[in-house]
Amino acid sequence: MSKATKRKHVVKEVLGDYITPNEKQQIMRIMGSNGNNLHEAVTESGERFLLSMPTKFRKNIWIKRGDFVIVDPIEEGDKVKGEINFILYRDHINYLRKLGIWPKGFEVDRVREQMQEEAKKDDTKSKEEDQEEDECDNSDSEDEQDLFVNTNRATVQYSESEEDSDEDEDSDEEEDNEEEEDKDD
C-alpha cells in the first residue's frame, strides 16, 4: 500500500468513525508535545503523564495542545503510561456528550479555567526568568571574552571614524563632479 493510500485510509478512519472508549480506555486532554512522538496529557482528575503516538498516526494526523484523545493504558511503562488510540474532534466530542460518556472533568467551563490558570503560571514563570536574565546580563557584558566564536565565518572588523567617513564623502562628491563634466562634453 502506498503512503498516499495509507494516509487516506487513516484520515478517513479518524474523521469518519465514531467510537466509544471501553472500560480500560480513558479520555485525556493533550497538554503539549515532548518530542519523539511523545505527548504530555492530563486526565479528568488532573493526573499528568506521557503518551506515545502510534506509527499509523505519525506524519498523517497532527494533534495540538487542548485536543482530546482516547488512550490505551500501558501497564509496564515507567514514564510513558499510555498510547493514543483515537483522536477526538468536535463532532466526536459532541457525540460522546449526547451518549453521556463525556467526563465531567472536561466540561467546557472547566477546561477554559484550567487553560487560563496554566497560561497565568507560564506568564509568571517567564517573568521570573526574564528578571533573572536581566540580572545576569549586567555581569555577562563584562565577560564578553568568554563568548563562543564561530570559526566557520570570516571575521570582519567594522570601524567607524570621522576621517574615514569624510574621505568617503569627498570621493563620492569628486566622482559625481567628474560624471557631470563627462556629460557636458
Please give a quick description of this structure.
One of its GO terms (cellular component) is nucleus. This protein has four helices and five strands.
What does this entry look like structurally?
43% of the residues lie in helices and 19% in strands. By secondary structure, the protein is α+β, with helices and mostly antiparallel strands. The longest helix is centred in the C-terminal third of the chain and has 33 residues, at 108-140. It has a domain at 3-103: Nucleic acid-binding proteins (OB fold (Dihydrolipoamide Acetyltransferase, E2P)). The chain has a five-stranded mixed beta barrel with strand order 1-2-3-5-4.
Topology of helices and strands:
Elements: H1 3-16, E1 26-35, E2 38-42, E3 48-52, E4 68-73, E5 80-88, H2 90-99, H3 108-140, H4 162-184
Parallel strand pairs: 3-5
Antiparallel strand pairs: 1-2, 1-4, 2-3, 4-5
